Amino acid sequence: MFSSVKMAIAGGILVIVVGAFWYVSGLRADLERSQQNVDTLETAVEDQVQVIEQMRQDQKEIAESREEIRGLIDQQRRTIDDLRSRFNESADGSERDFGKLAMSKPGLIENIINNASENAIRCMEIASGAELTKEEKNAGSNSECDFDSLP
Fold first, then answer.
1. All residues at 6 or more sequence positions from 88 whose CB lies less than 8 Å from its CB, including other chains
2. Mean pLDDT throughout 7-23?
3. Greater confidence, 7 or 91?
4. By three-state DSSP, how is residue 114 classified?
5. CB-hemisphere CA count at 13 Å for 145?
6. Distance between CA atoms of residues 142 and 123, nearest Å
7. Rounded to the nearest 5°, which phi and psi values hold at 130?
8. Which pLDDT tens digit goes with each residue over 91-133?
9. Buried b / exposed e across 37-49, counting CB within 10 Å, b at 16+?
């Protein structure tokens, strides 16, 4: 009887030792899996930080482009307003009726329009890549076409 008790105690100790080993092995596997998850998350955080930094840089560039475009739009609005007033105001600032002037002096208006059309066509040619003539190069600043802003 004493030997069966010893065997039961030895068997119980063996079961406890095997169970503890199995439990510790499981904990080690869980710890390894957790470490891999931490490494993956750290990599993901680094990637996200880079993405956020790139987004901030992109937003800054977009804001700069937006301001540049707003400036260009404002300049174009002023140019449009100036062009609109050309037909309704004389050089001295007094009001005029372009339709009446065209009715009373059609030849003068025809010449003005033809010259302006030729200038506009030449400006388009230059903007499309045509070479400047010697006269255009020597003219410096030209009110009809801004040669300085062209490539």
1. 95, 96, 97, 98
2. 90
3. 7
4. helix
5. 20
6. 11
7. -70, 150
8. 777 787 778 888 888 898 888 889 888 888 888 888 888 887 8
9. eeeeeeeeeeeee
Q: Would you say residue 128 lies in a domain?
A: yes
Question: Which residue in the block uniquely carries the two structure tokens 């560039």?
Answer: 61
With pLDDT > 70 as the criterion, what percentage of the chain qualifies?
A: 90
- How many distinct structural domains can be found in the chain? 1
Task: Extract the tokens encoding 146.
Answer: 């801004």
> In sequence order, which ranges of the chain are alpha helices (DSSP H)?
2-88, 98-104, 106-127, 134-139
Structural domain containing residue 120: 97-151
* 90 part of a folded domain: no
Q: Is residue 30 part of a domain?
A: no
One-letter amino acid of 100? K
For 102, list phi and psi in degrees, rounded to 5.
-65, -35
Q: Is 139 within the bounds of a domain?
A: yes
